[in-house]
Amino acid sequence: MARTALIFGVSGQDGAYLAQFLLSRGYAVHGTSRDSEIASFRNLEILGIRGDVQVHSVALHDFRNIVQVIRQAKPDEIYNLSAQSAVGLSFEQPVETIDSILNGTLNILESIRFLDIDTRFYHASSSESFGDTLDGPASEATAFRPCSPYGVAKSAAHWLVANYRQAYGLFACSGILFNHESPLRPARFVTRKIIRGAIAVAQGRLSKLEMGNLSVARDWGWAPEYVDAMWRMLQQETPDDFVIATGRMHALEDFARMAFERFGLDWRDHVVQDRMQRRPMDIHYSVGNPAKAEARLGWKAKTLLPQIIEHLIEAELASAS
Ligand SMILES: Nc1nc2c(ncn2[C@@H]2O[C@H](COP(=O)(O)OP(=O)(O)O[C@H]3O[C@H](CO)[C@@H](O)[C@H](O)[C@@H]3O)[C@@H](O)[C@H]2O)c(=O)[nH]1
Fold this sequence. Notes:
The structure is a single chain. The protein contains 11 helices and 13 strands. α3 (63-73) packs across α5. It has 321 residues and is α/β, with parallel strands linked by helices. The strands form 4 sheets. The chain has a 7-stranded parallel β-sheet with strand order 3-2-1-4-5-6-11, with helices on both faces. The chain has a two-stranded parallel ribbon with strand order 7-10. Strands 8-13 form a two-stranded parallel sheet. Helices cover 42% and strands 16% of the residues. It has 2 domains: 4-180 and 222-244, 3-Layer(aba) Sandwich (Rossmann fold); 186-218 and 248-288 and 298-320, UDP-galactose 4-epimerase, domain 1 (Alpha-Beta Complex). Guanosine-5'-diphosphate-alpha-D-mannose is lined by residues 85, 87-88, 126-128, 177-179, 188-190, 193, 211-214, 216, 218, 252, 277, 279, 282-283. The site of guanosine-5'-diphosphate-alpha-D-mannose (GDD) has 24 residues, from α4 and α7.
């Protein structure tokens, strides 16, 4: 019998790719957004699946609203991908960030408990919880040392999920995902910003790209592959948490160099640092150890940075033509 999934936060990058992935496996897919009447479901449109997802309006701070949508959709699997996701913005909107991430997660967990259903629950934890991974690639056993309001909220939500799993026996898993990119990323994230900037410079529409802190390094993966890992977690016999990453770290300067080189440009001639765009605190080194996901889920990142940059450039050029 066809299974049903409910995705909180279906309009974002991961929500759209996950909906596509689940539809391709025969799931009936329900998705929520703050106000589905006025929300842009552009990512679902780009993937050609807008008509295949049943959308609902859900405010995550409204417990009754969450109970209602779970009762309507009767999901076998629930995915929590909602809430504020920009780390930089979390310094300007700490209350909204912490409220949406923490209370949203708590309300979904409480709703599952209240309804006493044995739905499986996936929660989007984040590598931001680790802070700097100075002692080598972070695994599931690495301590959390978050350094942003977003990271603090994600850490608390992560432990809430673990607590509900242990205390109440919920089938609840957290994926601690490192950075994962795609053409569906909003341009406020650094990868899309650099790709767009390089193209604009190459086409003579921009002379200088203003950026924040360039002295950072990240573990960048390919978002469509990461939603597969989310699904695999919920197909396990027992619930658990997993780091999802490529295991490889690249300097942001190398990302910029590769993107500009593709157009025969030297990034150093076109990228300038703007102090105003720096965060009050930043993670310098971030890399994950995906060994547990590989061993237990049979999951491994296939698309690595040079291909990611190429895919992003191709998609950006195609969308402009
Ligand atoms: N956005 C942005 N970042 C810049 C810029 N210049 C330098 N950076 C640096 O580039 C790094 C990456 O920034 P983002 O692309 O905004 O991603 P993030 O902060 O690492 O967070 C993303 O990954 C997390 C882990 O998966 C996610 O949890 C989070 O929601 C988000 O997707 C950060 O160190 C940031 O300071 C700029 O102009 N814009």
